Amino acid sequence: MDILDYLKEERNKDWRKNLRSQIKTKDRTKTKKVKMPEENPDIRNTNNIEVNSGLTKEQALLEASRCIDCANPTCITGCPVGINIPKFIKNIESGDFLAAAATLKETNSLPAVCGRVCPQEIQCEEQCFYTTKLKLPPVAIGYLERFAADFEQNSGEISVPQVAEKNNIKIAVIGGGPAGLATATDLIKFGYDVTVFEALHEIGGVLKYGIPEFRLPNTIVDVEINNLKQMGVKFITNFIVGKTASFDDLRKEGFKAFFVASGAGLPNFMNIPGENFINIFSSNEYLTRVNLMNAANDNFDTPVFSGENVAIIGGGNTAMDSVRMAKRLGAKRAMIVYRRSREEMPARVEEVKHAIEEGIEFLNLHNPIEYFADEKRRVKSMKLQKMELGEPDDSGRRRPVPIEGAIEEIDVDTVVVAVGVSPNPLIPRSLSDLEVSKWGTIIVNDDMQSSIEDIFAGGDIVRGGATVILAMGDGRKAAIGINKYIKQKIKK
Amino acid sequence: MDNKIVEKIQFSENVVKLIINSPYIARSRKAGHFVIVRVDEEGERIPLTIAGSHPENGTIMLVIQRVGVSSAKLCDLNVGDTILDIVGPLGEATKIHKVGTILACGGGVGVAPMLPIVEAFKEAGNRVISIIAARTKDLIILEDEIRKHSDEVVIMTDDGSYGNKGLVTKGIEDIVAKEKINEAIVIGPAIMMKFAALTTKKHNIPTQASLNTIMVDGTGMCGACRVSVGGQTKFVCVDGPEFDAHLVDFDEMIERLGAYKDQEIIAHEKHEHKCKSKHQ
Ligand SMILES: Cc1cc2nc3c(=O)[nH]c(=O)nc-3n(C[C@H](O)[C@H](O)[C@H](O)COP(=O)(O)OP(=O)(O)OC[C@H]3O[C@@H](n4cnc5c(N)ncnc54)[C@H](O)[C@@H]3O)c2cc1C
Ligand SMILES: Cc1cc2nc3c(=O)[nH]c(=O)nc-3n(C[C@H](O)[C@H](O)[C@H](O)COP(=O)(O)OP(=O)(O)OC[C@H]3O[C@@H](n4cnc5c(N)ncnc54)[C@H](O)[C@@H]3O)c2cc1C
Ligand code: SF4
Ligand code: SF4
Ligand code: FES
């Protein structure tokens, strides 16, 4: 069935018609957008508690009633996995929260995660009728998604999706991040025998080692992983495909196809003088120590250094997570140093707002050009070049250009470099005939198939650093591609 | 079962050899590779060289020197215990080729990672001269194993309690004085590698050093292990661990190894305290 026909058919069901007739559209649009309950900024910046505490039932019902159940739900076009947004929101409005969660899971296996971390303001919510036509704040699609998913997680009635009859065909998923988890979900539903191989000792990829507890608690991710285990997905940690065993080894063990979702785990540095001084970290190292290795907890062996004057270089989500972490680890000054203006920062809008509330300083239009150290080679200050905005560049953002002679030096005892990541080279290096781009990303066709017939790929290893939901979208596409490939193979 | 310790030998008070079940790694590993180990839930991830393996039995050999909390936890494990996480083999394997005469210099526990390299160079048809150096007699490890795969072995102790008296650099000078060395490899404490490299440079001997920087993931993800080699930043876990010893900035590496010194001392004292109270 065509997707538009499906949406129409669902929308014409009696319960939806009924709901629409209960409140006049005009009244719906008069309702004010909910405000997410948040922890007090002065207290939360000293602990790891989740900042957004989640909508109450009453708030969710009211917010759901704002959605006017559009005949042409443009919001869906903004969602990379095409969630049937009005259907799940109307389920909330009618009080059937489990049905709302089931709707989310039709196309998204990690709704509790996406509801928290998607950049909604440039995806679903940007395409909402409220934003595009009414020029009003959009329906809080992300908050509602989180509400329904959390409700299901807390209800103890998590639906284990139906799984097709086992076909005993073994598929290997490489990497336990969002892309890998999304593929595993769909492949197990199709009946395959799915094994996820993960290099680290925990499943979840960036969701575990990168995004901090105060934004995405690990327990939320674990519930989803357990769900996959119940569906029959096997997980093997501490296993690096290409090192622990080669693709050929796994082929010999009977794996018929591979999905490479190894992420963009290689941190970029700026290659400026002094960058290897002590207490200058990549954001990956800084966040991994705290998130994956529990370094801030005294009972754990892994140490982390966090000083009083901490500068984070960059303006994305990673930079924002690192700077807010620095504050929580006790920094007196936790600063963002970013070469463009605040409007151009790629981080989620909500994270920037939270960071400001928590007392983070922003040095926008500043770019580090050199670090200085004390006699023990520990960083003690940095030289910053002031910038101004010039002509727009390829990305449409105005290019930052140095203001000649405008240089200042500030004291820092910790620096976290968060200027992007490159694709993890482990897999490309282990396969000489795999086609990769000049950036090291794996090249794939529309089915997410690489230049090697039985190897598919998706997520950050194909896109470079992108988003959770795009990685998941790739994973779902790859599952379809793999299914098609296997069916063709069997026919031959 | 995987990660189970099947054999333990105490080389000296602070150096232990463990044979561990790890079938995949036993099969895939080559000379120069290492693993990352996490002993228990609270443990940190530490890198250890694979000193040998037995693919048929599915076991690997690790030789561990007790220096801080994590290595102490490992040294205290016994036969039958399992290690929570072992991942590998990591790093680039040593480039083994036939060049003529190889000089292999191992200092302290660095002799363990040197063993598989010596073995491989010998097998490739080279003449292999090994120097085993340590502070004192008790710290000389794996002497028999190294002898088995070397044409000549020189023992150096700082205090002269065994073999020749003097540092590894003296050992190198003595050998270079009597025969032509085509290539050298040095493995041991950073400071030893620094001076060994200076010595071989003086004699224009191409030299590899196996670096032991601080690591977290061991897969190229964090950058904790970075070093400057020839003015360029490299990640030891994926670009190494072996590099041209004459290009490595050892001073930077030595300082970076001390990055967590304060925390390590506190952690160590706490660990000792915990162990003592457990035994009482
Ligand atoms: C700090 C931080 C904050 C972010 N915040 C957001 C946000 O708010 N919203 C958003 O949408 N996106 C955010 N992102 C980006 C998002 O997390 C990534 O785009 C997404 O996780 C990519 O998913 P992936 O599955 O492709 O890779 P990853 O999540 O990177 O997972 C890859 C996994 O593969 C494993 N692996 C690698 N090589 C191998 C191998 N050879 N064998 C076995 N396993 C292997 C890795 O260990 C890793 O676990 C953030 C990223 C970071 C770092
Ligand atoms: C590729 C590689 C291979 C290695 N192989 C071996 C091996 O086969 N056997 C072995 O005993 N050790 C080996 N090491 C060193 C080993 O990883 C460290 O001794 C260990 O991490 C120390 O942890 P700890 O908690 O016991 O000590 P800590 O309390 O963390 O440190 C104590 C002292 O050790 C130093 N140190 C800390 N981390 C390291 C490190 N990664 N390397 C060297 N010194 C360090 C510190 O400067 C400090 O002075 C290797 C290191 C690397 C990078
Ligand atoms: S998955 Fe992301 S983009 Fe899609 S509806 Fe949910 S929040 Fe919006
Ligand atoms: S565009 Fe907005 S109002 Fe319309 S269906 Fe989607 S969420 Fe509801
Ligand atoms: S140990 Fe993390 S990059 Fe090398």
CATH class of the largest domain in chain A: Alpha Beta
Helix content of chain B: 25-40%
- Principal-axis shape of chain B: globular
- Rounded to the nearest angstrom, the radius of gyration of chain A is 24 Å
- From the N-terminal CA to the C-terminal CA of chain A, the straight-line distance is 28 Å
Rg of chain B (CA only): 18 Å
DSSP summary, beta strand count of chain B = 16
Main sheet attributes: strand count, strand direction, barrel closure of chain A: 5 strands, parallel
Q: What are the bound molecules?
A: flavin-adenine dinucleotide, iron/sulfur cluster, FE2/S2 (inorganic) cluster
CATH fourth-tier homologous superfamily of the largest domain in chain A = FAD/NAD(P)-binding domain
**Poorly predicted regions of chain A:** none
| Range of strand content of chain A | 15-25%
Number of helices of chain A: 20
Largest sheet of chain B: 7 strands, mixed
Fourth CATH level, the homologous superfamily of the largest domain in chain B: Nucleotide-binding domain of ferredoxin-NADP reductase (FNR) module
Structural class of chain B: alpha/beta
CATH topology of the largest domain in chain A: FAD/NAD(P)-binding domain
Looking at the structure, the CATH topology of the largest domain in chain B is Rossmann fold
Q: Taking all residues together, what is the mean pLDDT of chain A?
A: 92
Number of strands of chain A: 15
Average pLDDT level of chain B: 90
